[in-house]
Amino acid sequence: MLIKQLININKDHVNQIIEAIALVADMKIKLTKSEKKYVDLVLQDASKQIDAKFWDYDEKQEFFKGLKSNQPVSIKAVVGEYQGALQLTIKEIDLINDTEVDIRSLTPTSDWEIESMKKGLQYFYDKVQRPHLKTLLDKMIFATDHYEKFCTYPAARRVHHNFYHGLLQHVLEVLKYAYTVATTKKLSERQMERLIVMAFLHDWAKIWEYKQLPETGFTEEGSMLGHIFLGAHATLNTIEEIEGFDNDDKLIILNGILGHHGKLEFGSPVLPKTVEAQILHHADIMSGDVESILSFMKEEEGKEDSFTGKLWNMGTEFYKKG
Amino acid sequence: MLIKQLININKDHVNQIIEAIALVADMKIKLTKSEKKYVDLVLQDASKQIDAKFWDYDEKQEFFKGLKSNQPVSIKAVVGEYQGALQLTIKEIDLINDTEVDIRSLTPTSDWEIESMKKGLQYFYDKVQRPHLKTLLDKMIFATDHYEKFCTYPAARRVHHNFYHGLLQHVLEVLKYAYTVATTKKLSERQMERLIVMAFLHDWAKIWEYKQLPETGFTEEGSMLGHIFLGAHATLNTIEEIEGFDNDDKLIILNGILGHHGKLEFGSPVLPKTVEAQILHHADIMSGDVESILSFMKEEEGKEDSFTGKLWNMGTEFYKKG
Amino acid sequence: MLIKQLININKDHVNQIIEAIALVADMKIKLTKSEKKYVDLVLQDASKQIDAKFWDYDEKQEFFKGLKSNQPVSIKAVVGEYQGALQLTIKEIDLINDTEVDIRSLTPTSDWEIESMKKGLQYFYDKVQRPHLKTLLDKMIFATDHYEKFCTYPAARRVHHNFYHGLLQHVLEVLKYAYTVATTKKLSERQMERLIVMAFLHDWAKIWEYKQLPETGFTEEGSMLGHIFLGAHATLNTIEEIEGFDNDDKLIILNGILGHHGKLEFGSPVLPKTVEAQILHHADIMSGDVESILSFMKEEEGKEDSFTGKLWNMGTEFYKKG
Amino acid sequence: MLIKQLININKDHVNQIIEAIALVADMKIKLTKSEKKYVDLVLQDASKQIDAKFWDYDEKQEFFKGLKSNQPVSIKAVVGEYQGALQLTIKEIDLINDTEVDIRSLTPTSDWEIESMKKGLQYFYDKVQRPHLKTLLDKMIFATDHYEKFCTYPAARRVHHNFYHGLLQHVLEVLKYAYTVATTKKLSERQMERLIVMAFLHDWAKIWEYKQLPETGFTEEGSMLGHIFLGAHATLNTIEEIEGFDNDDKLIILNGILGHHGKLEFGSPVLPKTVEAQILHHADIMSGDVESILSFMKEEEGKEDSFTGKLWNMGTEFYKKG
Amino acid sequence: MLIKQLININKDHVNQIIEAIALVADMKIKLTKSEKKYVDLVLQDASKQIDAKFWDYDEKQEFFKGLKSNQPVSIKAVVGEYQGALQLTIKEIDLINDTEVDIRSLTPTSDWEIESMKKGLQYFYDKVQRPHLKTLLDKMIFATDHYEKFCTYPAARRVHHNFYHGLLQHVLEVLKYAYTVATTKKLSERQMERLIVMAFLHDWAKIWEYKQLPETGFTEEGSMLGHIFLGAHATLNTIEEIEGFDNDDKLIILNGILGHHGKLEFGSPVLPKTVEAQILHHADIMSGDVESILSFMKEEEGKEDSFTGKLWNMGTEFYKKG
Amino acid sequence: MLIKQLININKDHVNQIIEAIALVADMKIKLTKSEKKYVDLVLQDASKQIDAKFWDYDEKQEFFKGLKSNQPVSIKAVVGEYQGALQLTIKEIDLINDTEVDIRSLTPTSDWEIESMKKGLQYFYDKVQRPHLKTLLDKMIFATDHYEKFCTYPAARRVHHNFYHGLLQHVLEVLKYAYTVATTKKLSERQMERLIVMAFLHDWAKIWEYKQLPETGFTEEGSMLGHIFLGAHATLNTIEEIEGFDNDDKLIILNGILGHHGKLEFGSPVLPKTVEAQILHHADIMSGDVESILSFMKEEEGKEDSFTGKLWNMGTEFYKKG
């Protein structure tokens, strides 16, 4: 039976043979107590991750030695159940050529529709009137080869927005929340425009800090320098290219990018020193925290308890009823 | 020359005599080095506070002994300047009968229009459909003698929303911010309704925690028990009066009120354990922090530096240019 | 050989068959490397917990699917030793009817004698003279259906007083310590009476926060609202029922309950604002910390080192010699 | 009119001349705006401190140049009132010979009766049976020239027990609280004896750390090394003089002294690693905190508010009603 | 009597008239109680600061209105003494033309000899062999208009190295300490060279963050962006100009600059992730802390106590004897 | 094939039989899933640690029951590879008599040459001129039976300098770093000499706090009292034996020993209150941190990633390239 997405495998499939296409997210060679080698894998596609075993390592040694992380494969496997969770016993496994499959279809992706997200970007871009600010956004986001990356990169390594278009979705959330506050509190036109520009750019350098999906994790540059510095650096260099860029705008936008983590202990080298920068900071946390709770609760949906386990970045468990 | 509001006094009035009506916000009897008693006063109206001196204490001893804090008075005074700030030398001072003057016109007041704020309340109330939740809001806010207090009390003692209608304005801001997040993240109808109810009620007990304006400061009950406990207590008792109130709604709304400060060290005895409660918490900080920066920057407007002084609750100075 | 209490099993029983009655505290189905299912259990009675295995899961599948946590069972088992600790290989296992066995005899219980504890309660009750305070204690503890729960519930989920009568024993310790301080420091009669009342009531709501033994863990209400809020809430409602209850006593007793964890970061929404409340707070820690060290040292008694392992809530290991 | 104690001066004395004997606690030469020198003094006796002025510095220049801190003087002065507080305008001031006055009668003193405190010491001493422990107490406290100092020194520089016999009173409180806990929790005889010895010795080195009253403040040795090190050092040396001193007792008693502040950040170089040491630590805080609240509330008695000011070491204000 | 440096004024000058040249570090117009305006000044030169008064403000109103901060003036004044400190009563005060006086001679300056400091820079520069690193130092420090600023700017606003050549002296200290560690621990040639380059550049951006002496305080750019970001930004741009710059060297040097405060809470947006970066961090603290203690102790030299006051950044007082 | 050091075993030896001599660092009896007992060992010599298995426990039960930790053994074993790491399958294992092997050759040892380290000690000793200080060093380090221990003990239990001569190497590093700072900052002769003495003595009591190698871990005295107290105690007693020891030197040296961890929360009961003590503190951290990074990076050398794992005491991973 061909399974379209891993999430479609359910208890009814137990003891049946299924076929599926997935990425090898992780793989380890292990030893049974009787000293026989087997392969312990994690498979994933856009819908979920699942554990799998392959018991005859010795027969397919060459194949597994050549396997890379994030390699797409096709499998035939028996569905089993172990301590309440489904797992697969792989019978056949083969490489798939990159051209035969869209890797993106095997990787977690925002459930927001991409075209409407791009329209959202345009909507906020249009609210910026002053030419030097428009030019800054053009150069950093729209008119350059950055656009593709900006629209596909994740916004985090784990916990929240760690999927295709994650950065784009996060930026739109931040723009929306920040804009609501700004209109409610009747910020001036200049403040409003700067706030929009800062929201666009605050996490921009995540396209340098993270590896390109389906790979996950930090680049060396990302680990050593971080997106806060990299983003302010790129923005300052772009500003310097724009003739007559207003000096106060420059200082305020850069301070907003540097300060968007809100406190020194969270990695901002300076504190946010304008009301725009403080709004950006709070909108950023709001977006990250809410998404991390929602995605965590989705993961914990199957389990029976009335509370989830503890979500480490929130420091508490969550109530699942209601 | 009759001055309508204290904020209208300016450098052009120096050495002139003005007349005005104000509240006596503070008063101390002091001694000159030559051991003569004088009176050091702070006067205030809705527009600002100003220092004043009255040099002949001995002649008006009885009058000043009888003066209470927040007493409205009419004065004649010479305008002076001392270390860059304006101050008054009072020549004549008399009591005003409470009936001759609207004390509210002498007390700081929200610059949001009251009727449109009340419409705002109604707007969000109408989004709540389930009857037991509507009844809860009716009893706590609309259909009771609470309504008047809810619409006039301040939301803080200092820093932010510490003025007439401050609680009302703050609740509307929180409702607006929280609602934007909830629709953006597609919360369920039940979550949305609970979030609205929690936002309405989270600071409700400030009508018990604070004294009624123009008096400021905590009631004894407020100091000893705090609005977090008092609000959850009153809400739970009201819920118990409503037949068939959903149990999950009860736990989630109470947890939201108890947890809205977000962390134990900020006075929440339990952490927010639903996504609604976390949204409420962040919307609450957003409202408080942004208002405290804006009102602080207004205070610092006159001064010449490019940065304000340090705003204690934010831990930093703010940039005034741009 | 019939074993009366699990603690009586010792190294002399190794390789012998024993019979015993115990609760199933925990149970997991696991897989041997050869993919055979077995059952990994934790058994407990009032005296201790012990690990046990049952190797033929397939033969008793139905039995184990029906097993609940805290189910009393009778077993026949071979005693073994694994990495220095005793463990059981179960040969036979059967349900026991609840009527055949007193579950309490299988659950950890205070080693203080229950009747003398009840006399202790009475002793301190008699020190309270003012009628409204006596009525408060009557309603909350003595004259209601609360009394049974108050006398049997645990005072914690783990670490200290987490056994039958644990709350009662803890309250008596707190009363005793607080009373010693109050007499030493010559507190007034009013202060003394309030301190006694606060000590009686400070953890009262643990009868709502915890499940009833032998079940352990929090109720949903307990997780979401916590015993600090619940206790102050119930106390305030009871006070409101008592005509002419002194207002200062009300505020002080409620502040004492709300503040008994001593610091905001430990879950008190307000700080203790009277000397009575501070004494209560310190007596509460004294009772909890001392009991947690003593019970931890008892657990570690068998091991050979001169120090225990680290006790997590104290942050240090303890010296076992001397 | 001769005033026996400064606390007896009241509003009825305003504008009258009083005579009194007091210590000069502090003195500064100041300048009036008209550039005339005057003397600003703080006078104190056992009952309270009071501000005083002497306006003709030039006439008594030699006298004031010779005045030392804690010098006893006799004064004639006019009682005045300034911003609600009483103050003295000194007309005559003269030295008193140390032999004419008991300086102790001019210094704050424990209100516990000295002979009954000494009996208290004896009472707990008698509970220690094992000879090497008795010898340790004999050498450190009873049989040496330490006894006088131990019975007269303060236990702190400010906040609590900062008066004659303060150390003695504090040690008795700690003994009493610790003993109550130890009997309640049925500690072994050996634990009990060690706990008593540790309570006797924990603050012993305050007789080295502080200056002798009426002087206040730290000795150089006290500032540089602290009573925690000095006390453990002296105790270890005394133990080494006692033949056959049990080694576990040695380690446990020294750990108790070193650990009695309970946490590294409060100056204990090691944590308390026995139950005795933890009891000592909590009894020590209980004694210090309760005394600091009580003495602070006494100071604040006169003021009209329902709350005291904030007590810095407790981080909160206290409720004065009830 | 002409006084060469303010530090030369001593008690023998009291009541004499002196002449001196100094900068006006601070100035306030104040009111005597009799409502007469006077001027309260702080004068400074390289040797110290001293308080001064000018009593006839009205006569020299125009002069004082025109006075700027850090204006050099010549004065005639009577030396007085007030509460143990010397102060001046100014009789005559006049502007000095900037050309008549070297402002640097009136500003605090490093007591290290400037030429030997420049030799020190050269000494460490010569230890760097690899051309791309030499070029980086050439462009950032030696071959550009930065050299003059680098050699004259302060390294802090207060506490340590807050004087002419302060940055230069601090960098030399850091180089010396770091080099000692590197040779002791036998770092590789590559590590050593990178460490030297990082030490040269770590505080480089203080020439952008601070105002040019004799002005003190932050530039707007400095307050909003900070020297950590600015320094890494300038370094990265310079590196990009150098062909074939080794990529690992780039990441490590930039990480060293970004991480030199050692912890996020001290303003480093990333942690130091190489041994070179950690050595730099510790050498930087060593230099700052030691200098701040030494300069603080010099300030406190005159006072009689055996301890200084508390040095805020060290959290303690220091022992002056020995 | 006889292997000289465990570090010489490499992938070329896989499936071959090797012979070696090593210490048994750790040993556990475990069960295969088929319930057969085997032995899981960690072997170590001066060069590295390696995992080993012995599968026939039952045949050599007596031998393994008698094995102590740090026992030297000779083995014959087959080299295997498991999850990328080498491990041994032991075929033969026998005790070695202590006289046949130098245990030190099997224990990690400083790679600094011992004779040159001893010369280093002498070098700094010779810089101390004043006789009472020389006598102190003579008694504490050179002229007593302490010398051997001082030169062989480790300076830590893990992380840094946890090897033979570790204390000696650490003290020399601290002396060198501190001396560089002292000469750079032109400390007085007296300060310099005290700093050298303090550096010699600061960790002296580690010879009491740790067990003698090859045993590792704390003595009971070390756990209960700590090297900070023990070191200051021994130093004070030695000072008291030296006639005419300068009192300021005494206080400063003892404060330096007590304060060398720099902050209360790191176990110093008093803060460093002289510039010498602060230099000592920073030199101590510099030595410990740098050594812990270098030794950690050596351990992680084999692995392929560009970053190490996280080093717990530094809170970060380290970059391995460059």
UniProtKB/TrEMBL annotation, chains A, B, C, D, E, F:
Q: Does the keyword DNA-binding apply?
A: no
UniProt keyword annotation of Transmembrane present: no
In Pfam terms, one family for this protein is tRNA_anti-codon
GO biological process per UniProt: rRNA 3'-end processing
GO terms for MF = hydrolase activity; nucleic acid binding
Family matches, as Gene3D superfamilies: Hypothetical protein af1432 (1.10.3210.10), Nucleic acid-binding proteins (2.40.50.140)
Please name the InterPro entries in this protein's record. Answer: HD/PDEase_dom (IPR003607), HD_domain (IPR006674), NA-bd_OB-fold (IPR012340), NA-bd_OB_tRNA (IPR004365), YhaM_exoribonuc/phosphodiest (IPR050798)
Domain HD/PDEase residues, every copy: 163-298
Protein keywords = Hydrolase
SMART domains linked to this entry: HDc
Per its UniProt record, what PANTHER family does this chain match? Answer: 3'-5' EXORIBONUCLEASE YHAM (PTHR37294:SF1)
Q: What protein name does the entry list?
A: HD domain-containing protein
